[in-house]
Specification:
Strand content: 25-35%
Structural class: alpha+beta
CATH superfamily of the largest domain: Enolpyruvate transferase domain
Number of strands: 22
Number of helices: 12
Helix content: 25-40%
Number of domains: 2
Strand order of the largest sheet: 2-15-17-16
Largest sheet: 4 strands, mixed
Radius of gyration: 21 Å
Shape: globular
CATH architecture of the largest domain: Alpha-beta prism
CATH topology of the largest domain: UDP-n-acetylglucosamine1-carboxyvinyl-transferase, Chain
CATH class of the largest domain: Alpha Beta
Length: 426
């Protein structure tokens, strides 16, 4: 498996763009496929996870053509999908398997979905429970793990559902099922999570209302096909924000990045730590806030992270642990137990690998205590076949003394296919 070697860099001054948003690309394919008519998706993410959703819709009879930057999708309406002839392979994509569970909930056929070894260890009960209340039969391995067998129910019942944990994926699955139910389906979250699904549903003409962590969708309203412009992925931009903050004499600008409030808790945490970050060229594109992010080297201080921010930066927490190792004082992160059931056990993985590089980290059941600042040194580290662990250790390598080797580096293709190319350029 490929090993990447990272050498330290100082004085990084760069302007760059990151690939299209992964979450918005998934949802663009789903809603375009369920809408009536033609939709072009511009600047989509051509990563492995999103390819799984594209291929799933092709298996269901949706015509999707693509070139390097655009998708051309011929939607067939809410009832236009056909039963796939073979089981759908979601690969490593939790978004694919969870959101498509909601899509298939109201269809008049049976669907099987499976994934790779990592996805097969990720629990699905949080999706299965609300869909079951709506009248969907879902069979799973050991009651909650993939593979899943979904027996669709064209006569879905609308529900009001209180999510025990804020989760955009679970919320989206219920809303997608609610689109196909008779009546109004409401999801209530205990905290803020990303609302790409709500924004795109509104953009496509669905009857939807959302405010203060409560979202209601009215079923059976036809979606109207519209073109979509996908902004740069904030979670991908976050790695270069970190590089700008940590590498000496550095300033990095990332252009045209999505700034969804449910995604930008990372910026709020960094500002509390004293980071020098600016937003420029702010605008609204296809119902999503977008802008340029400028980050420059900063003197940072440790914080106790507000647990209310955790759902808004769950993907960036491993990166925040790295940044905390370079901040003055103690950083405490709690309420992030969900990291244990991501593509890897991210609490264990990032603690282990950054410790190899000299970081002082105490691993908690649901988070971390990080003492800083420490001088990092190069080491041989593992990716755990987890794209976010691989990329976080790469940014650590830029700021460390000596060379860092990252094993199984190809996993970044899931969300950021040209990551290593950009690391080389800056």
């Amino acid at each position: 498996m490929p090993t990447i070697k990272i050498k330290p860099k100082l004085n990084i001054n760069a302007t760059l763009k990151v690939p299209g948003d992964k979450s918005i690309t998934h949802r663009s394919v789903i809603f375009a496929g369920l809408a009536q008519g033609h939709c072009t998706v511009y600047d989509y993410l051509d990563g492995d996870d999103c390819r799984r959703t594209i291929e799933a819709f092709r298996q269901c009879g949706i015509e999707i053509k693509k070139d390097k930057t655009q998708l051309y999708i011929e939607g067939k309406g809410l009832n236009g999908l056909k039963a796939p002839e073979i089981p759908i392979n979601a690969g490593n994509s939790g978004t694919t398997i969870r959101l498509l569970s909601g899509v298939f909930a109201g269809q008049n056929f049976e669907t099987e979905m499976f994934g790779d070894a990592s996805l097969s260890k990720r629990p699905m009960k949080r999706v299965m429970e609300p869909l079951g209340l709506m009248g969907v039969k879902i069979q799973a391995a050991n009651s909650q793990y993939p593979p899943l067998k979904i027996t669709g129910n064209p006569d879905l019942k609308p529900i009001t559902y209180n999510l025990p944990i804020a989760s955009a994926q679970v919320k989206s699955a219920v809303l997608l099922a609610g689109l196909q139910a008779h009546g109004k389906t409401t999801v209530i979250e205990p905290g803020l999570s990303r609302d790409h699904t709500e924004r795109l549903l509104e953009y496509f003409g669905a009857k939807i209302k959302y405010k203060n962590n409560i979202v209601t969708v009215e079923g059976k309203a036809e979606l109207k096909a519209k073109d979509i412009y996908v902004p740069g992925d904030f979670s991908s931009a976050a790695f270069f924000i970190a590089a700008g903050l940590l590498a000496k004499k550095s300033k990095i600008k990332i252009e045209n990045v999505g700034l969804n409030e449910g995604r930008t808790g990372f910026l709020k945490a960094l500002e509390t730590m004293g980071a020098k970050i600016k937003i420029e060229n702010f605008k609204i594109v296809c119902n999503e806030p977008v802008g340029d992010i400028v980050a420059e080297v900063s003197s940072l201080k440790g914080i106790t992270l507000d647990t209310a921010l955790v759902p808004q930066l769950i993907d960036e927490i491993p990166l925040l642990v790295l940044i905390a190792s370079q901040a003055q004082g103690k950083t405490v992160i709690k309420g992030a137990g969900e990291l244990r059931v991501k593509e890897s056990d991210r609490i264990k993985a990032i603690s282990s690998e950054l410790k190899k590089m000299g970081a002082v980290i105490t691993e908690l059941e649901d988070g971390f205590i990080v003492d800083g600042p420490v001088k990092l040194h190069g080491a041989i580290v593992e990716s755990y076949d987890d794209h976010r662990i691989a990329m976080t250790t790469a940014i650590a390598g830029l700021c460390a003394d000596g060379e860092t080797e990252i094993n199984n580096s190809e996993c970044v293709d899931i969300s950021f296919p040209n990551f290593w190319e950009l690391i080389e350029k800056i």
